[in-house]
Amino acid sequence: MFINPPRERWSELCRRAGSDDRDVAARVEAIVDRVAREGDKALYALAEEIDGVRLTALRVSEEEFAAAERAVSDELKRAIDVAVANISAFHRAQLPHEVRVETAPGVTCIQRPVPIRRVGLYVPGGTAPLFSTVLMLALPASIAGCGEVVMCTPTDRNGCVAAEVLYAARRCGVGAVYKAGGAQAVAAMAYGTESIPKVDKIFGPGNRYVTVAKQLVSGRNTSIDMPAGPSEVMVMADGSASPSFVAADMLSQAEHGRDSQAMVVCDTRSLAEAVVAEVERQAAALSRAGYVAESLSHSRVVVFDERQAMVNFANMYAAEHLIVMMRDAWSIVDRITAAGSVFVGQYSPESAGDYASGTNHTLPTSGWAHSCSGVNIDSFMRKMTIQELSREGLATLAPTIVAMADAEGLQAHAEAVRVRMNDNAK
Q1: Model-level pTM?
Q2: HSE value, Cβ hemisphere, 13 Å, CA-based, for 343
Q3: Cα three-residue angle 133-137-205, rounded to 5 degrees
């Protein structure tokens, strides 16, 4: 617990777990290079070396999809249907429109949204079958009109992909699912192998290995959605907040994995102590207690006397998920400038956004919310510009273009205009 920490300590308190792990970077680079060189051979070998799984095929078969369909309960299928409807509604509303402007007489400029041709989705599955991530990635890809959707996800010890993940993939129209996890899956989609096609852009969250792999390949030949590593939450709370609600939100984040982080920023020491007590009480009943305990070891509770200090600290942290449980919560939210997704009020738990409210749960972590958005329809599209100039339109702009080209010393640019203006052909 930290009480009114001085500003010079804020950067330290905002540090994420493992953010300076150079060993991870070295290991990831070796894995990526190996997959780029050896293709499928490396994927089979790494599955055995890292996960202890001996695979006989990389692509999920139709028989496996059929078995998954039978294995998923009707109750879960109905729940997925509700989530699909809400996520689809919110993302369909984001579809961009073509922009057409006549910037000058005879000069027409167009911005046209175009879907990305082939996208690769990474769905984590190491400690839990995160089928909700399938919905968050595959539905926007489909709505955006991406021509081909490829998905990679890890298997269990028996070489099987969770039935829920396969059911969700088929429900969302994913064309092919491959048994590959971690940095090697990212490398496979970035470079292509004998089985897995090279994609134009890679999407999806993951652990530090996945995040570093995405950043590595994005510097070479494949675009990525954003750096989306170990999950995190910050809860801002005052005396109006229920300590049990705050604790529950911390724990729902802490159970994601050992390197997840949960932060609480509140306005009194008494509330902080009540939240800590609730966390201990609720944690004792959780099935993923090991992950929770390690995550909480690098989680923090920070107390500030002033609301503006709370806001300033939250903006410096730039949480993946930010929950605001305070009086007049919207006055706080309106001052937040850096967060992946914001949850307002006592009855807006992060779980709602993770599953079914309609917003996307693939969000920037580790402070990347300062400069990156979460996944949305625009993530699956690119904007192409088009222009058409009539002879009269070019004549209007010719003095401007020629003057600027001459000033930059680019004679051929200027001549491309002059030759047209000197051509008497109509």
Answers
A1: 0.93
A2: 28
A3: 55
The pair of structure tokens assigned to 90 is 């919110």
Task: Tell me which of 164, 232, 255, 321 is the catalytic residue.
Answer: 321
Q: What is the DSSP letter of 227?
A: -
Phi (first) and psi of residue 301, to 5 degrees: -120, 125
User: At 215, is the pLDDT very low, low, confident or very high (cuts 50, 70, 90)?
Assistant: very high
Residue 320 annotated among the catalytic residues of the structure: yes
The residue among 407, 406, 408 whose CA lies nearest residue 417 is 406
The two three-digit tokens of residue 310, written as one number? 């709370």
Describe the crossing of helices 22-38 and 208-218 by its angle, rounded to 10 degrees.
60
Type of residue found at 137: L
Q: How far apart are the first and last CA of the chain?
A: 78
Give CA–CA dist 324/346, Å, rounded. Answer: 8
pLDDT one-digit tens code per residue, 315-344:
999 999 999 999 999 999 999 999 999 999
Location of structure tokens 């730039």: 318
207 pLDDT band, cuts 50/70/90, is confident
Q: Provide the 10 A C-beta neighbour count for residue 27.
A: 17
Distances 214 to 20, 130, 211, 220, 225 between C-alpha atoms, Å = 16, 19, 5, 10, 9
Among the listed residues 232, 320, 350, 361, the single catalytic one is 320
Residue 252 has a CB neighbour count (10 Å cut-off) of 21
